[in-house]
Design the sequence.
């Protein structure tokens, strides 16, 4: 095999479309199609099903995907190590992030990082599932990642901020003007759950094992806040999401308070690339300039 274009193949997988992959990479759609067709012809396997509106991996493509990801990671590590040895501020850092960190922390961090290191590219992978996010970091599928809790896996983790949980209510709610909201009152409310909330989220909030019964299940945080603003129920969110909330809701601290520790994780600070190390150091140094 002359050359396996991992960037093209993995971008097609992530976007599910030759056209979207072309937009991301700056290719033409025909160019992306040619590269994938040539690769399939060389290996003698069909890697993608072409469907109306997009593409998806065949079973053979899915089997080869982990190996392709390993090759891609090895190539990036090789290039970054060469840059390290040359003393160049160049390379690429691949970062995973959960939604509220992606929205409220990353834009400012990336902007200031690019000002300091214009030769280092930053790629962001959205991952709301905490365990999956940890696994991305542990397996080095990403160079580093923002995590909403201290990780269970053996990775280096650096605290960035304490992020208290709060109840969001409409401005017409009976508790809208209160300074605190009793956690146990949630059992009496119309509760709006978010689909991706996991069991450990509720274990932390309700250690007695009792759970609120959801009246609605929203696909995402903004949909939940929209419903709350219409007084259809209440929800629990982190303080980080309070920043620039687009709907007229009131965020009230919990009583007793419950807090999560937001941080950045890396498989090993000693063995990560120079680009990743500089990004992590920049994140840690810049947190005091970010309001939340």
Sequence:
């Amino acid at each position: 095999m002359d050359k396996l274009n991992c960037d093209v193949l993995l971008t097609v997988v992530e976007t599910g479309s030759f056209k979207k992959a072309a937009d991301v990479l700056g290719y033409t759609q025909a160019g992306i199609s040619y590269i994938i067709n040539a690769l399939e012809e060389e290996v003698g396997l069909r890697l993608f099903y072409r469907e109306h509106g997009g593409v998806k991996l065949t079973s053979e493509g899915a089997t080869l995907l982990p190996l392709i990801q390993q090759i891609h990671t090895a190539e990036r590590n090789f290039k970054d190590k060469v840059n390290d040895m040359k003393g160049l501020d160049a390379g690429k850092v691949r970062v995973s992030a959960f939604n509220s960190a992606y929205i409220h922390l990353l834009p400012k961090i990336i902007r200031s990082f690019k000002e300091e290191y214009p030769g280092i590219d930053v790629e962001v992978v959205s991952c709301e599932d905490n365990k999956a996010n940890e696994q991305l970091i542990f397996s080095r599928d990403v160079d580093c990642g923002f995590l909403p809790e201290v990780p269970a896996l053996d990775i280096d983790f650096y605290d960035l901020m304490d992020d208290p949980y709060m109840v969001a209510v409409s401005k017409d709610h009976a508790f809208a003007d209160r300074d605190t909201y009793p956690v146990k009152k949630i059992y009496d409310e119309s509760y709006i759950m978010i689909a991706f909330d996991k069991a450990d989220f509720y274990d932390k909030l309700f250690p007695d094992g009792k759970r609120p019964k959801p009246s609605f299940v929203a696909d995402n945080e903004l949909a939940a806040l929209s419903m709350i603003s219409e007084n259809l129920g209440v929800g629990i969110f982190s303080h980080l999401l309070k920043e620039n909330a687009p709907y007229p809701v009131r965020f009230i601290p919990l009583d007793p308070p419950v807090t999560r520790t937001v941080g950045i994780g890396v498989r090993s600070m000693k063995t990560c690339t120079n680009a990743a190390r500089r990004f992590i150091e920049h994140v840690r140094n810049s947190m005091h300039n970010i309001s939340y």
User: Anything to note?
Assistant: The mean pLDDT is 89. The longest strand covers residues 156-170. The CA atoms of residues 40 and 46 lie 6 Å apart. Residues 59-86 form the longest helix (28 residues).
